[in-house]
Amino acid sequence: MSFQPRMHNRIEGFSVIGGLRRRSWNGVVADLWDVECAQGAGGYYVSEDPRLIVVLDLQGGARRQIKFTPGWSGPAFEQRRHTLSYIPAGMEIWAEINDVRVVRHLDLHFNLDALRNRLMDEIDPAKAETPRLMFEDSRFVALAELIAAECDNPDPLHDLYGDGLTVALFIDLMRLGPPRGRKRSQLAAWQLRRATDFIEAHCMRGIRLGELAMLTGLSQSHFSHAFKASTGLAPYQWQMQARIERIKKRLVEDDSPLTAVAAEAGFADQAHFTRTFRRHVGVTPSQWKKVRRS
Length: 294
What we know:
With about 290 residues, the protein is of the alpha+beta class. It folds into two domains: about 5-175, Jelly Rolls, CATH 2.60.120.10; about 190-294, Orthogonal Bundle (Arc Repressor Mutant, subunit A). The protein is built from eleven helices and eight strands. The protein has helices spanning about 110-120, 125-130, 140-150, 160-175, 190-200, 210-215, 220-230, 235-255, 260-265, 270-280, 285-294; strands at about 5-15, 20-25, 30-45, 50-70, 75-80, 85, 95-110, 130-135. Strands 1, 2, 3, 4, 5, 6, 7 and 8 form an eight-stranded antiparallel sheet that branches. A hairpin with a 6-residue loop joins strand 4 and strand 5. Helix 6 packs across helix 7 and helix 9 (about 260-265) packs across helix 10. The longest helix has 19 residues, at about 235-255. It is globular, with a radius of gyration of 20 Å. The two termini are about 40 Å apart. The relative contact order is 0.12.
């Protein structure tokens, strides 16, 4: 079965011009959008696959702006020019559009399993799991323009053309090089304890990778590598497990509606909460609660 991006969103104020233009290559799906934006347009997005958003054109007033806010309480990132945003799998983003009439953007959705197989498993987990919001890179924009033109092309070129462009962009984005064969170092016991204690205490809100790195005196990249080498999980995966355990305790201890539990845990809505809980536990929250209370 071909790769299909798995995106969940709740948006308003957007009207697509001319329909979605989509092309699929080996491990990458490219979506080209032209969208009219009403005043106050925006919404919530989360994808089960990592993606790169490239704003190719932004038409509007002198104060035109796109704002991305990650998670539940992270800092906002704003743009008034053409920028790129790399968003890891499972990262929640709130978007707000101001003084913009039309935006043209290219979304590249990455199938990490397929790309890992193609590139001999040389994808750095720290880079794949670290967001990069509202950055600029002329090389990426140049490749994105060529990919967008191919999405818009009524007479597409050979698949190897688009495949080469998208893989080249992904390799540059992940800064992939030849295999080095080095073993990842682990966190010291005190660093691991400090990081996991902090995650446990703050698991119901968005935790930035920089917070954890600062606690352990490491760079974000070094911390992310060492944490996964120590635990087998990326920091955000460890946090989600801690959050699920906290939610389980809440479900057993009181009779709050699931909508209230979902809101307290920072989920966009009950449907997103239910999907996430079932993915980690194997059953829905209501089913789990019923069994534990029977």
